[in-house]
Specification:
Elements lengths: L4 E7 L4 H10 L5 E7 L18 E3 L6 H14 L3 E4 L7 H11 L2 E6 L7 H15 L4 E4 L2 H7 L6 E3 L7 H4 L11 E6 L8 H9 L6 E6 L5 H8 L5 E5 L6 H6 L3 E4 L8 H8 L4 E3 L4 H6 L6 E3 L4 H13 L1 H16 L5 H13 L2
Parallel strand pairs: 1-2, 1-4, 2-3, 4-5, 5-6, 6-7, 8-9, 8-11, 9-10, 11-12, 12-13
Helix pairs in contact: 1-14, 7-8, 7-12, 10-13, 12-13
Length: 354
């Protein structure tokens, strides 16, 4: 391996966990990672962060010719040894592949599992993926659900989930619950896909004054949720919370609940596990499928109100398991690729064996 092996990461927007990954990768002096993000942010995700000017570039991509020329200049000036692309349909992905082929540079896709399609759309998506994947050297699949899909299209598929720096979450101290108030926490966008309405309805069907539901996030369903909870002081909307402030909120809660209808991964589950919290969630969430076993370190529910309510009641009736399952989760995530230190080490091993 040559000194200062250069990795170019092309993705849509900077996220806290991607920035953690870039920062951790650059701690290894034999490697240098630079990220080229198409845009600075997206709806309902107003993260504030101080980007490393050296490692992160935001293009404000607008599909004009100058945007393609700017990426070409960035690519040539950086002269990467490997290109990591965070989306097979990403604008500039084809240009990145063409430039890499000309320069004999290795290429990896880093992908969540795709949304399910039917009929003609499914046929064309399969055809598109199959032909584009022929051009790359491997796939970093985000979780076992993604691995199961992409192994049908490429021989080199690696299970490589999203990760982040969890150090501040590991510092959260827990003790066993008795008859004290139990606080449940949801973190995510207030949109239909996250199933937030059914969560609130399930919670409100439980007549227990010693439980609370705290909701982190914002989105198009905010007003609907506000109307649902206006007469229930047990439910509180916390709004959007910046990454640095999240550990303080997790500290005040006991059980994480995330009944999403679909999530390619769900990085909030990493945060909850590192915070030593049990997780109530659906197997529609990639990270849940990866880490959570029913009644061993969490509760697997369906998306309907009754099933979500069953998960909440399970921990109300088994308070001692809140601590036990939480400790299991902290150990599990610390030893997994969900921790950014482990993920970067694994990426280096993948690169060495390409």
């Amino acid at each position: 391996m040559n000194q200062n092996f250069k990795i170019l990461f092309l993705s849509n927007i900077p996220t806290p966990y991607q920035l953690d990954f870039i920062k951790e990768a650059n701690k290894n002096h034999n490697y240098e990672m630079r990220a080229y993000f198409l845009w600075g942010r997206e709806k309902n995700r107003d993260w504030l962060f101080k980007k490393d000017q050296e490692s992160v570039y935001i293009a404000n991509f607008s599909y004009h010719l100058k945007d393609y020329l700017n990426f070409y200049k960035f690519f040539i000036n950086f002269s990467p040894n490997l290109v990591l692309i965070g989306g097979y349909r990403l604008p500039l992905s084809m240009l990145a592949i063409i430039l890499s082929k000309i320069k004999h540079i290795k290429i990896l896709f880093w992908l969540e599992r795709p949304f399910e399609s039917r009929g003609l759309k499914k046929f064309f998506k399969k055809f598109y993926i199959k032909n584009k994947f022929r051009l790359v050297n491997g796939i970093l699949a985000i979780g076992i659900l993604a691995v199961d899909i992409y192994k049908n299209f490429h021989k080199k598929v690696f299970n490589f989930p999203y990760s982040l720096n969890l150090d501040e979450f590991y510092k959260i101290s827990r003790s066993e619950k008795s008859n004290k108030e139990i606080n449940f926490l949801f973190s995510g966008q207030l949109i239909e896909r996250k199933n937030i309405v059914n969560l609130v309805k399930a919670f409100q069907q439980i007549e227990d004054k010693k439980i609370r539901l705290n909701i982190i996030g914002t989105g198009e369903l905010k007003e609907q949720i506000e109307k649902l909870i206006e007469r229930d002081p047990r439910v509180k909307l916390l709004g959007f919370i910046q990454p640095n402030d999240l550990p303080a909120v997790y500290t005040q809660n006991d059980v994480f609940i995330f009944p999403s209808k679909y999530d390619g991964w769900g990085i909030v589950v990493n945060e909850a596990m590192a915070s030593a919290m049990p997780v109530i969630a659906t197997e529609k969430v990639g990270s849940v499928k990866e880490f959570i076993k029913h009644k061993e370190n969490g509760f697997i529910c369906d998306i309907d109100v009754e099933s979500i309510k069953e998960g909440i009641i399970y921990y109300l009736e088994n308070k001692s398991l809140i601590y036990q399952h939480g400790q299991k989760n902290r150990k599990l995530i610390s030893e997994s690729l969900g921790d950014v230190k482990n993920a970067v080490d694994y990426l280096i091993e993948i690169i060495k064996n390409l």
